[in-house]
């Protein structure tokens, strides 16, 4: 069960922040799901999307994956208009539901 196979989204994967940034500069996307590490890396990509430094729409739906989320990080995510926050580790179904929140398509059924 994957977002691709279920028709929830066309998925492009990037192994690094730099690779994700390159993709976002060269292509438009309907949404972005990315990991934010303990140092907050990944927030820079969200900021660049929001300020128009990428080919993506500035109000593109964004979801993040985090290992932990304190009040300060949650405030930063809200300010960046992040639509979905998923705590790691997560089940595949949880991620598919988060993706469906970004795409507006119905989540998968069990």
Can you give me a brief rundown of this structure?
With 110 residues, the chain is of the alpha/beta class.
How helix-rich are the residues, as a percent range? 25-40%
What is the CA-atom radius of gyration, in angstroms? 13 Å
Mean pLDDT, all residues: 89
How large is the count of helical segments? 4
Report what the structure shows.
It is a single chain. The protein is α/β, with parallel strands linked by helices and 110 residues long. 35% of the residues lie in helices and 13% in strands. It has four helices and three strands; from the N terminus they run H-E-H-E-H-E-H. Helix 3 (71-79) links the parallel strand 2 and strand 3 (84-87). The chain is globular. The termini are close together. The relative contact order is 0.20. The model has no long low-confidence stretch (mean pLDDT 89).
Write the layout of secondary structure elements.
Layout: H1 17-26, E1 32-36, H2 43-50, E2 62-66, H3 71-79, E3 84-87, H4 92-103
Parallel strand pairs: 1-2, 2-3
């Amino acid at each position: 069960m994957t977002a691709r196979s279920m028709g929830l989204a066309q998925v492009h994967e990037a192994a690094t922040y730099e690779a994700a940034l390159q993709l976002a500069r060269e292509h438009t996307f309907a949404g972005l799901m990315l990991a934010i590490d303990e140092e907050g890396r990944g927030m820079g990509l969200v900021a660049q999307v929001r300020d128009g430094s990428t080919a993506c729409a500035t109000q593109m739906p964004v979801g993040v994956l985090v290992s932990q989320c304190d009040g300060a990080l949650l405030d930063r995510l809200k300010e960046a208009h992040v639509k979905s926050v998923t705590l790691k580790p997560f089940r595949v179904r949880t991620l598919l539901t988060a993706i469906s929140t970004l795409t507006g398509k119905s989540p998968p059924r069990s």
